Each structure stands twice: as C-alpha cells, then as structure tokens.
TrEMBL record:
Gene3D superfamilies: Electron Transport, Fmn-binding Protein, Chain A, Nucleoside Triphosphate Pyrophosphohydrolase. It comes from the Bacteria. It comes from Tritonibacter litoralis. Keywords: Oxidoreductase. InterPro entries: Flavin_Rdtase-like_dom (IPR002563), NADH-dep_flavin_reductase (IPR050268), Split_barrel_FMN-bd (IPR012349). This is Flavin reductase. Residues 13-156 form the Flavin reductase like domain. The lineage of its organism: Bacteria, Pseudomonadati, Pseudomonadota, Alphaproteobacteria, Rhodobacterales. It holds the Pfam family Flavin_Reduct. PANTHER family: FLAVIN REDUCTASE, FMN REDUCTASE (NADH) RUTF. The keyword Oxidoreductase applies. SUPFAM superfamilies: FMN-binding split barrel (SSF50475).
Amino acid sequence: MTELDPRALRDAFGAFMTGVTVVTAHDTDGNPIGFTANSFSSVSLDPPLVSICLAKSSSNYDALANASGFAVNVLSESQKHVSNTFARPVEDRFAAVSWQSGPHGSPVFDEGSAWFDCSMFKTVEAGDHLILIGKVEAFENSTRPGLGYARGAYVTSAMEAEALNNNANLLLSVLIEHQGKVLLVDDGHGQLSLPETRVGKEGVSTVLQRLIASKGAEAEAGFIYSVYEDEARATQHISFLCQASSDTASCGTFVELSAGALMKISDPAIRIMLERFANESRMGNFGVFFGNQISGKVRPMTSGS
C-alpha cells in the first residue's frame, strides 16, 4: 500500500464539518482537566452511549484512560474563546469558563449548547488514539446554536447569514419550534404564516434577533434551514430554524403541523417548507433547502451521529 501523506490526510479529514466540544474529567488529585475535541459522536440510545477519541500523545492520556467517567461539553457559537483556550497549553484553562461538577462528577460548562456527564463504559485501542465510550448518566440541552468547525476554521450560522447581506431584496423568516409545534402568526387575511421581515442595512444577525424578540418567544437564533429565490415576490428568502424553550409567545401561536394547519398557510413555498419540516422532525434528520419557490434540492446537514 502506498504510504499516505499525513498532512494531506489530516486536511482531507478536516473537510468533514463537525461540532466543537471540550472533554472534561478529574485527574487522580481531583483537579479538573479538559481538552478541545471534534471527534465526539453519539453511539447508542439504548443504552445511551457516546464516544470521543483521545490521542495517546495527549498530556491528559493517563488521567482519562483510567478515569471512572468524563463529560462532553458541546460548545455554542459564543464560546470560540473556550475552544481556543482548551486547545492550547494554558496553565489554568478552567479560568476561561464558568463550570460546575455534573451529577456524575465531571466538569460541565455554562452557556454551552449541551453537555453529557458520562460514566466510563469501555475503552478501545485504535491506532494512535484511544476511543473512550461513555454511558450518559445525565445531560442538559439548550436552544443555543452549536459552534461548527471545518478545514481549520470555525463556522457559525451568523457567518453564513452575513454572507447574504449584499442582497438588497432579502426576506428573512423564522421557523421557531418547540417539541414539534411551530410558531405561526396571522398574516392579516385570516391565513397563517411564519414570522418574517425584510433585511435592511442592519444585517441578518441583528434583524434575526429582533424578529425573534418581537414575537416574545423564548428562543435563540438557530441555523439556516432554507434559502430560495422567490421569483413571485422578487426576493431571496432565508429561513432560520430556531429552537424554543417553551411554547409561549406574546405574538402568534405554537401550532402542531397537522394537514389542516398546513392548509391554512398562505404562502405555497412556506407550506412546502413546513411540510418538509414536519417529515424531517419525525425522522430526526434535517437538511438545508436551496432552490426557488417551486423546486430545489435538500442538502443533508453534516452530523457526527
């Protein structure tokens, strides 16, 4: 077999977009330890298992290889500094983050997208790495969008959105979801629609935050769910999927996407998008739509699962 170029192989691995996590535990003296990792993956629901890959060259190798458990902290878009801190030989990494001991004992972070506190289920030798398989003993999820990483750079939904700001006819809508229900508003003609607004000079991120706040929904700015040219309205439409922590709002109502509710959606393109969302919600597998108001393609979102 021809010898592979390690640098080229690493670059190729980097083409796979991942989330960013910090893996934490305690050493034998009880001190918190942690490192940045994008090798996190869900393994099983029954039993609930996750995995992480630990380099044998890591300074944390001995402590983690013999630990009774570990935690995986999924970083949010606002935590790039945390990722950088835990990726470098900083003397006190934990000074950069607010944390506490999780229910099973490993350090878990505040302000992240999620965390999983695990007991050690199994370790597997794998070349120059050790695969740590943990059984999830406790976890916490939030509505904060996760921090992405690809080809040596961070990727966030805000960055993607700002790339569209040069379009003078950009229309933005929010698909705010809570446990399968979606926030819909009356369009003024007895029909329903997603909350939407034009994007002006302020930029997508600012307008997105204000649109969510104007509906009184407890939701965070999420990721781009659909981008399409609406020739009938002479606009480019961008829709964000945002998770809400409750189904209450000061403007609009959270509605289950039944066939009857979908028939009340005034815009055919929005109706098609919500039909797709209803189907994807049942499967738990989302994609991003690119095209126009009539047809296009759905590109699967990259996942570590």
